[in-house]
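Sequence only, no structure available. Ideas?
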Amino acid sequence: MRILRREFVRALGASGACASLPSSLRGSQPQNLREHLAADPFRPQYHLLPARNWMNDPNGPIHWNGRYHMFFQYNPNAAVWGDMHWAHAVSEDMIRWRHLPIALAPTPGWDDADAAPRQFSTPV
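Reply:
I predicted one. Tokens follow.
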């Protein structure tokens, strides 16, 4: 595939513009980034969102004893994918959510470096 000089210069200019963003938007000051995102008028207001860090794959919604329960993948340590835990939140109206303690966390020693299980429990 051949790239035209004009397209190359346009892409180069766009990458240079990204590099010149204020440091508060590039992630070097996470508190300022959090404040910026919280004030974003396009940020969802009626969706389950984590208080901080990475959320992924909302799953397993149930209604039990008058409350809605939602589970989701969550990284409690960083605002990027990785170190996945399953978090739990409850709501009475599906608008205001209360975060509960982590439902499932990785268990050290369960798998090896290749993520292959090392323990099996099989009924006889």
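The chain is about 25% helix and 30% strand.
Hope that gets you unstuck.
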